[in-house]
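[step 3/7] fold_predict: job queued, chain A
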Amino acid sequence: MFKTLLIFLHLIATCAAIGTIVLTDLRLIAKVIGYRVVIPKPERLETTIISLALVLLYLTGGLIVYIGTQASPHYLNNEKLLAKLLLVALLTLNAVALHKTVFPILGRARPVSQWSRQE
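[step 4/7] structure written:
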């Protein structure tokens, strides 16, 4: 029962994070293709939802792996699980890179057409 609840919370957090990020991405895509849209800085609600969802994803994911390793010492030999852990690591690095490099550029008040090639 506990593991089922854990997986449910993990899926809810995934949906919350993806849904919030997709809405922001759609605004960015609209701006890139030339639609005159104002991309405001992420609202406090958006950043709070994503932050809480990511914390919940890390906690529930870690607990799911912990429970699995307690049930079977060969739990980490699962190639799909290792691929998912690698993907989580890469997405985390991507998020750090976006926050350090891309988001400051997006925060400038210049149209996309005036960005340099490097930007």
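[step 5/7] annotate
The longest helix spans residues 2-32.
The radius of gyration is 18 Å.
exit 0
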